[in-house]
TrEMBL record:
It comes from Cloeon dipterum. Pfam families: Sugar_tr. Gene3D superfamilies: MFS general substrate transporter like domains (1.20.1250.20). Residues 103-520 form the Major facilitator superfamily (MFS) profile domain. The keyword ATP-binding does not apply. One of its GO terms (molecular function) is transmembrane transporter activity. This is Major facilitator superfamily (MFS) profile domain-containing protein.
């Protein structure tokens, strides 16, 4: 019997689902919720704000640089004035979709008279926002179309930081413990998140945006392992439900915070300041017993087991405990000694097997596809409605994940992993493919289609995670699952670029993300 089997047997004695597990899962759930908030926050901090420019004439620009100005005889342009006054079409060219141009205005004929030369256009210098929302777009004057790539780059760099940080956090987790890695990730993410509020330039902001997930981007993975190591295999389905539900509600919480704050700095303060409290996990969150056993720290493992038995009010036989502890001294498996297969040795073994190589290629492709669509639908959900509706849309697409997890697990048990994966991919693809053909005057039908697409791709994400973990040999499982996850980050890195693809691809040019959806 190995380390894992021994501890599974011990869990039956101390209680596999008692107060100890409830306490542990509650602590981990808070970490998972913060992971969700932290990983998707750039949707609102780097959002494109509906705007038109403030028509500041040359003379007004010289003498009133730091003030909002009137446009001669045209009217007031203060924050309380209408976003589209009657005279706007005389001063600003409009796009084919009926929206005013972002960075162009007609040339003024007189600084005191509302007259413009409609045959001559010129650049503007500042903007009037449609509503109170403030993002880095408004903070760093990234309004014009040539700056949209900078906003899309924020999400891509965030996911690049996760990709770089995965092996770092994995090393810390295996070398110094699950709890240590989790606390470092949580507190680091909170600190870098707060530092972003001090950013005075776009460059400063995106550097911090990438560094945050480099040190704190694997919170979900560490929490997932720490949580599932607390229960027996039979209870892991229930444990997994707690984890994925916490993540879904964390995403919804992000939408609520952004809705209430409407200011990127306030959002960052509200979501990251509480993360500093996670330093208390050093004292309140016990280390993984399985990790302690694998490292030969049997005295520490015994203390955690006794603490769990006390909380679960279980009678722990001292003789059995002593026999269990002594038995571990000569029963440490490959992972415990640190001599197990690393990533490179695993990949070398895969190249020697055509079957494993094909499985790795197919699973990696599935991971890249599912992450592209999953994150693409999450990010573009804010474009489905107006300024007010985008928060509800984001919250809805987050909460729809909860029933998806429940139904997907039933399908996996009844239909199998492969059929469930195919079914969810096809269902999501159909929903995404049909959406562009919904007439503009039938916009009410677009949101249900979008939600169904997110529902299906969430099921695909859950299935591909389980399917990948089960399809590879036990000895290579961890390394190859990590490889697929890293390849999947390519999809999540591309997802923030989908709004730019919509604007630049010939088939979608001139359309908005309201009637474009990306399918797997």
């Amino acid at each position: 019997m190995g380390v894992n089997e021994d501890f599974d047997a011990m869990l039956h004695d101390i209680g596999a689902c008692g107060l100890y597990q409830i306490r542990q899962y509650t602590l981990v759930a808070f970490a998972i919720m913060f992971s969700a908030v932290s990983s998707i926050g750039f949707v609102f901090t780097a959002a494109i704000v509906p705007h038109r420019y403030n028509l500041i004439f040359f003379f007004a620009l010289i003498f009133h640089l730091n003030e909002r100005c009137l446009i001669g005889a045209c009217g007031d342009e203060s924050e309380t004035s209408p976003f589209t006054p009657d005279w706007l079409s005389e001063a600003v060219p409009f796009k084919s979709n009926g929206q005013p141009e972002s960075c162009l205005m007609f040339q003024s004929l007189n600084a005191t008279i509302c007259e413009f030369e409609r045959n001559v256009q010129e650049r503007c210098y500042s903007w009037v926002m449609d509503g109170p929302e403030r993002t880095i777009q408004t903070e760093f004057s990234l309004m014009c179309p040539e700056n949209e790539w900078k906003l899309a780059l924020v999400g891509t760099l965030n996911n690049l930081g996760v990709l770089i940080g995965l092996p770092i956090s994995g090393f810390i987790s295996d070398r110094y413990g699950r709890k240590t890695a989790l606390v470092i990730a949580l507190v680091s993410a909170g600190i870098f998140g707060l530092l972003k509020t001090l950013a005075t330039s776009y460059i400063f902001f995106v550097i911090l945006e990438m560094m945050e997930p480099m040190f704190g981007g694997n919170i979900y993975g560490i929490s997932f392992i720490l949580a599932l190591e607390m229960v027996t295999p039979k209870k892991r389905v229930v444990g997994n439900m707690v984890i994925v539900f916490a993540y879904a509600f964390g995403n919804a919480l992000m939408g609520l915070i952004a809705w209430a704050a409407r200011d990127w700095r306030v959002i960052l303060w509200a979501t990251n300041a509480p993360a500093l409290l996670f330093v208390l996990y050093i004292w309140v969150l016990p280390e993984s017993v399985r990790w302690l056993m694998s490292r030969g720290r049997l005295g520490d493992a015994k203390k955690v087991v006794e603490f769990a038995a006390k909380l679960n009010k279980a009678d722990l036989d001292k003789e059995s405990m002593k026999d269990w502890q002594n038995g571990q001294l000569d029963r440490v498996d490959t992972d415990a000694t640190g001599k197990g297969d690393n990533l490179w040795s695993s990949l070398r073994q895969v190249t020697k097997s055509g079957v494993l190589l094909l499985r790795l290629a197919l699973c990696s492709f599935c991971w890249a596809s599912v992450t592209l669509v999953y994150y693409g639908l999450s990010l573009n959900s804010v474009s489905l409605g107006g300024t007010e509706n985008k928060y509800l849309n984001f919250i809805s697409t987050s909460l729809v994940e909860a029933p998806s997890y429940l139904i997907t697990w039933q399908c996996m048990n009844r239909l199998g992993r492969r059929r469930t994966l195919c079914l969810t991919f096809v269902a999501s693809g159909i929903a995404c493919f049909v959406n562009p053909f919904v007439p503009d005057n039938a916009g009410a039908a677009r949101l249900p289609l979008y939600l169904f697409g997110k529902f299906a791709i969430t099921g695909a994400f859950d299935t591909v995670y389980v399917f990948t973990a089960e399809i590879f040999p036990t000895k290579l499982r961890n390394s190859l699952l990590g490889t697929c996850s890293m390849v999947g980050r390519i999809g999540s890195m591309l997802a923030p670029q989908t709004p730019l693809l919509v604007k630049n691809l010939p088939i979608t040019r001139g359309k908005t993300t309201n009637n474009i959806m990306w399918f797997p």
